Amino acid sequence: MSTNEADTEMMSQGVMSTGDDTRIFPDVAACIDCGGCVVACNRTWDMPRDEQRISISTMLEGEEGATEAADVGGTRRINDPSGAVANGQQPGETSVPMQCYHCDNAPCVTVCPVDALVKKDDGFVDVRDDVCIGCQYCLSACPFGAPQFPGSNDGAAEIFGTGGTMDKCTMCQDRQDVGKGPACAEECATDAILVGSTEQIADELEKRDSGTFFNDEAMKVVFGEDEAKEAFGV
């Protein structure tokens, strides 16, 4: 599978390429907590009403962020929450699309005792449903809350005290196989979900004058130490 450049031109601005070694990452400064990504995912994969593979985590809801001097006098809110945090300032209300980022250094893969989670050669992190025992170690290990256990209260899972089979974002690999971007990113009204190579994501964030928001350790988990250092300087 390779990047389909012709189709990429018809995708949202946030989807820069698809295919092998594609990464997905949020531009926190662009997220407006509209829920469009959640709706797109649920509709695309026909998810039950009480389940979802992507959610929006909103912090400091209703609070004003740090301000800076405006060109025309007075003050204005700093639009980049990452910049505010880096300067030790209050970022104010901040929304982060949370999903499986298919991490290069995926802790869920490392802790799974039965190898139900695998990091494939094409970069996607997959769940082997027939191997998962519902121990939920992956949930404890993931910094982003991606693993979900929708069957934890059903039948045998409840009787034996397991979490059932784990479910998570697939980064719409089936859509990428035919040259389409992940549904959440394609339908994001503000292009707050970026899809592409590590370099493309770093360049797009720089072009937008947006920060990464995640701390250095989280960036190394998502992109791997070498790529995080090369692309983001962490």
UniProtKB/TrEMBL annotation:
InterPro entries: 4Fe4S_Fe-S-bd, 4Fe4S_Fe_S_CS, ET_IronSulfur_Cluster-Binding. It holds the Pfam family Fer4_11. One of its GO terms (molecular function) is metal ion binding. Keywords: 4Fe-4S, Iron, Iron-sulfur, Metal-binding. SUPFAM superfamilies: 4Fe-4S ferredoxins (SSF54862). Residues 62-91 are annotated as: Disordered. CDD domains: DMSOR_beta_like. Residues 22-50, 92-122, 123-152 form the 4Fe-4S ferredoxin-type domain. The keyword Zinc does not apply. The keyword 4Fe-4S applies. PANTHER family: PROTEIN NRFC, PROTEIN NRFC HOMOLOG. This is Formate dehydrogenase iron-sulfur subunit. The lineage of its organism: Archaea, Methanobacteriati, Methanobacteriota, Stenosarchaea group, Halobacteria.
